[in-house]
């Protein structure tokens, strides 16, 4: 009852209540900001990981010493390893591409129609056209951003130019060939949607002068986090000298940078909660000085030091508890509607917030992790409780005689 009365504003205590209000608001915003930023960074990492692993193999096998002419047999042996979902022989090469709207560079991947159908990140994201009869024709599948940049649609021709063409008495001439666009896909990662072309495996062998061989075998596993355990069984199944590199090695620097950025953001935003906790100290200290006579009277009536400490501890702790609860509620609401809020602020400002050309993803993701949210709550409550202890202890240590000497 006393803690509640001390929290409510009275005419003489308006300034103290204003400080308590700012403390409450600071903790609310600090907790909400922490939850939102952590959720967005988790979502950003998860979406990138899903798209990178969805289109690229978890483990890539490349030949050493001799060309990969026995790719069918090697792929079958590797696919039989426990933990491996499937293995895909590939032809990879770089080319310049052009259409009605201009030109750009492209990464061409030669793959069979059956293998492409098993890569859900592509086959399940076809926006126009179809992959039916992919192996039978000479058409290609391109990303939606490439189609938009080059002004192409399904049925139009896209021209590929490769520097490694036919060898003539005058040297190597570039190879130029036009292919119809049979399908347009949208993976959701702007870099891939703007640069990758899928071509029938046999046609890619001819185009890149790779008849009878593959350049690599990409392996998709059941659990990408356990890909290191499969290295030895895959090497044994290959039965030839191979170079293996997994997705963790290929993207180690990128994901380590994301983790460092995430940790630094957590530390920086924790300072918001710390500042709000310091406001609790200042507000409670002023409240203790203002209530010195009340404390002395309560002590003379028989209130113990522990009772006084509990009163003022509950006063400060209430700010922390209710501020944290409000921050969690606000953070969850924002996380559930983060993409709508991004679109709204983009419309309000007339600019593109979270540009997909810079951030790779076409929309702002948010992945609310329960463990992290609980950690933020515990951290905010701990700072609030520690900030409350010092003023509460000073109130309990107040000498009634000194407090009433001049009353």
Q: Tell me the series of helices and strands, N- to C-terminal.
A: HHEHEEHHEEHEEEEHEHEHEHHHHHHHH
Helicity, as a percent range: 55-70%
Number of helices: 17
Taking the alpha carbons of the first and last residues, their distance comes to 25 Å
Rg from Cα: 32 Å
User: Reading side by side through the largest sheet, how are the strands ordered?
Assistant: 2-3-10-5-9-6
Number of strands: 12
DSSP strand content: 15-25%
Which class do the helix and strand fractions yield?
Answer: alpha+beta
Mean pLDDT: 81
* Overall geometric form: elongated
Uncertain segments = none
Biggest β-sheet strands, sense, barrel:
6 strands, mixed, barrel
Looking at how many chains there are and whether they match, the oligomeric state comes to single chain
Question: How many distinct folded domains?
Answer: 2
Descriptive notes:
It is elongated, with a radius of gyration of 32 Å. Helix 3 (71-79) packs antiparallel against helix 9, helix 11 packs antiparallel against helix 13 and helix 11 runs parallel beside helix 16 (370-396). The longest helix has 42 residues, at 14-55. The protein is an alpha+beta fold. The strands form 2 sheets. Strands 2-3-10-5-9-6 form a 6-stranded mixed β-barrel. It folds into 2 domains: 2-50 and 254-404, no CATH class; 66-240, no CATH class. The protein is 56% helix and 19% strand. The model has no long low-confidence stretch (mean pLDDT 81).
Topology:
Elements: H1 2-7, H2 14-55, E1 59-63, H3 71-79, E2 84-99, E3 102-111, H4 113-118, H5 120-123, E4 126-129, E5 140-143, H6 144-150, E6 157-162, E7 167-168, E8 171-172, E9 175-185, H7 190-195, E10 196-200, H8 201-207, E11 216-221, H9 231-238, E12 242-246, H10 247-250, H11 252-290, H12 292-300, H13 305-336, H14 338-349, H15 356-359, H16 370-396, H17 400-404
Parallel strand pairs: 3-10, 5-9
Antiparallel strand pairs: 1-11, 1-12, 2-3, 2-6, 2-11, 4-9, 5-10, 6-9, 7-8
Helix pairs in contact: 2-11, 2-13, 2-16, 3-9, 11-13, 11-16, 13-16
């Amino acid at each position: 009852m006393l803690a509640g009365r001390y929290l409510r504003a009275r005419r003489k205590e308006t300034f103290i209540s204003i400080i308590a209000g700012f403390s409450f608001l600071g903790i609310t915003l600090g907790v909400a900001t922490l939850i939102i930023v952590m959720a967005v960074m988790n979502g950003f990492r998860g979406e990138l990981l899903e798209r990178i692993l969805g289109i690229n193999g978890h483990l890539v096998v490349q030949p050493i010493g001799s060309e990969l002419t026995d790719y069918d047999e090697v792929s079958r042996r590797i696919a039989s390893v426990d933990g491996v979902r499937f293995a895909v022989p590939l032809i990879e090469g770089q080319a310049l591409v052009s259409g009605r709207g201009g030109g750009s560079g492209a990464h061409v991947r030669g793959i069979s129609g059956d293998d492409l159908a098993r890569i859900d990140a592509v086959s399940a994201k076809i926006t126009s056209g179809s992959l039916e009869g992919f192996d039978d024709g000479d058409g290609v599948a391109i990303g939606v951003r490439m189609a938009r940049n080059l002004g192409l649609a399904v049925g139009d021709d896209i021209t590929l130019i490769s520097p490694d063409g036919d060898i003539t008495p005058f040297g190597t001439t570039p190879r130029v060939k036009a292919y119809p666009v049979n399908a347009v896909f949208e993976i959701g990662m702007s870099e891939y949607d703007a640069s990758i072309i899928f071509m029938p495996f046999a046609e890619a062998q001819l185009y890149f002068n790779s008849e009878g061989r593959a350049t690599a075998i990409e392996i998709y596993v059941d659990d990408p986090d356990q890909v290191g355990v499969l290295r030895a069984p895959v090497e044994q199944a290959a039965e030839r000298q191979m170079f293996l590199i997994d997705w963790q090695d290929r993207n180690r620097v990128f994901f380590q940078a994301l983790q460092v950025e995430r940790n630094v953001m957590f530390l920086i935003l924790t300072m918001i909660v710390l500042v709000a906790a310091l406001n609790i100290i200042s507000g409670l200290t002023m409240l203790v000085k203002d209530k010195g006579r009340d404390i002395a009277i309560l002590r003379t009536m028989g209130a113990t030091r522990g009772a006084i400490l509990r009163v003022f501890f509950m006063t400060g702790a209430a700010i922390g508890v209710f501020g944290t609860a409000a921050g969690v509620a606000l953070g969850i609401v924002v996380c559930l509607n983060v993409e709508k809020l991004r679109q709204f602020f983009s419309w309000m400002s007339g600019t593109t917030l979270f540009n997909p050309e810079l951030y790779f993803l076409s929309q702002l993701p948010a992945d609310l992790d329960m463990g992290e949210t609980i950690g933020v709550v515990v951290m905010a409550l701990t700072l609030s409780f520690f900030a409350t202890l010092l003023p509460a202890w000073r109130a309990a240590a107040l000498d009634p005689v000194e407090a009433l000497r001049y009353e």
